[in-house]
Amino acid sequence: MNTIQLGQSDLHVTPICLGTMTFGEQVDEASAHAILDRSLARGINFIDTAEMYSVPARAETYGATETIIGNWLRKTPGARQKLVIATKVAGPSRGMPWVREGSGMTAADIVASCEASLKRLGVETIDLYQIHWPERNVPAFGTMYYDPAKERSQTPILAQLEAMATLVKQGKVRHIGLSNETPYGVHEFVRLAEQHGLPRVATVQNPYCLVNRVLENGLDETMHRLQVSLLAYSPLGFGLLTGKYDDSGIEGPAAPQGARIAKYETVRKQRWGRADALAAARRYNALAREHGLTPTRMALAWCYTQWQVASTIIGVTSLAQLEEDIEAWGTTLDAGLLEQIDRIRWEMRDPAV
């Protein structure tokens, strides 16, 4: 795999990124270390984590994923020098009081969270430091519409950028990014950075998969014109696009045991647990089989080859899943299959928005 430059930064990453939010909940430390070993051996130079991981978020596992990665880095000579490490500062609480006091995300919160992440990871510098979700009110995590009545912003974007600039100046962060962002947010972060000589966002990490293509409704143009790179997360629709729920559904005695979407009620209540999301996924999965592909291979190949995507974040719970996801790289989908994919999207839209 060739590497891709992220935005206007000097970061060059592989087009596959290892997501780690299962480490510390579904994946124990020894298994996580084995996955990290194999990922590095397969040539992946990019890993993504966050202060709030593992997921589903609990007070007991807050910061666990970064700690697991830090322990692995300390015992793996040369690994740090080969890797681009991305992590994230949590936005406003969203029902997680253990992350920080108060309901907002202040400039001081950004600095404190970064320093805590550096300590857990055991590194001197974070290569890409991202705001996990906006400080202001936005439609995200299953909310479809913007509602100005719910505005809660306490820390202007300029103040957030100034906090990031402090971290960059101190050498604690190399580049910055956003996550779960909107076109407005991307434009404002770039505009204010350029106006005030502050760090420019290199990336946006947003969901992008066959059952959620809302990025294509304007955000992709924004990012292309502003030279901000997409890190696509949930390319398998939280497992819906693997086919493992096609016969069983996502809950009940027949559902796969231990699967994240089947196991945790909070996940089922969000976008991935909707009945119409599963219905759409079943259509895509059947289409893949008709063309001699596994659902996983088709869904990943689609994401891997979209012009909008710089790097695709894969989240795995086993070495077998890691190998399957990497082996899908290089798969091309012919024009006829892509046309059929677009017809399903036209009919069923984006049910996992």
From TrEMBL:
InterPro entries: AKR, AKR_Detox_Biosynth, NAD(P)_OxRdtase_dom_sf, NADP_OxRdtase_dom. Residues 15-344 form the NADP-dependent oxidoreductase domain. It holds the Pfam family Aldo_ket_red. PANTHER family: NAD(P)-LINKED OXIDOREDUCTASE SUPERFAMILY PROTEIN, NADH-SPECIFIC METHYLGLYOXAL REDUCTASE-RELATED. This is Aldo/keto reductase. It comes from the Bacteria. Keywords: Oxidoreductase.
